[in-house]
Amino acid sequence: MEIIEDAPPITPAEGEEDRFRWPKDDEEAKSTPSGTRWLTITPMCSDGVYIYAMTNYREGAKDSARKTTWVEVYELKENQYTFVSEVELKDLAEKPWAGRGTLNDNGGYLDHGSCASNGTHFVWHSRKNVHIFNLKSGILEKKINVHSGNHLSCFDSASSNWYSCDADCYSWLDEWKIVGFKAVLVAAAEEEGEAQLPRVPLILDVHKARLKKQVRKTE
Q1: What is the tens place of the pLDDT at every residue in 166-189?
Q2: CB atoms within 10 A of CB 111
Q3: Given phi > 0 = left and psi -120 to 50 = alpha, else beta, which region is 206?
Q4: Which end of the chain is more exposed for a tag (fewer CB within 10 A), N or C?
Q5: CA 150, CA 164: separation in Å to the nearest integer?
Q6: Whole-model pTM above 0.90?
Q7: Helix segments in the chain, DSSP class H
Q8: 143 three-class SS
Q9: How far apart are CA 219 and CA 68, in angstroms?
Q10: Which tens digit of pLDDT belongs to each residue from 96-128?
């Protein structure tokens, strides 16, 4: 793998310079009807077409309680990102969704999860649960408890599989799918009659003992 040191920087489109700029203090943060927009913890993902950013809005200062969450959509062309759209996430009762956990945890809840999108739905995988939101309305369509303990997770866009491991012991890796949820590129390939993208084999057991040893050293 080669690192290109002189690659051109990714810049915002004209008029959107403040979207990913960190406020210097609480007074500089912009307040909106949804609350104060903060990027303390901002989970991001891409479906191969757009970039999705999970942005939290708080009652006021950056360490105040979370009030609601929005998903912002961006498009990247020729090293320049452009804002496309945004939608507020809502729970099953169609009220603003702020996630669980301590609401004033300064981003801790959003810091321990992963997200993915297929263009029509947005999935947030917290430590134990999977939340499936309609990307057009923002409404939570389904919440599923998939783990009894805290798990770390990621989405594999080559196979449309989710992978997760126990955050307390790191001893095994779970592989599972969300029925009907496919990565954009995989769905497009299937429609064109092409073979699914090759999967990377997982050889975790070989490194299990070594991984446990490294974890103990850092504890």
Answers
A1: 877 766 778 888 888 887 765 565
A2: 13
A3: alpha
A4: N
A5: 10
A6: no
A7: 108-111, 184-191, 205-218
A8: strand
A9: 34
A10: 998 875 555 555 677 778 899 999 999 998 878
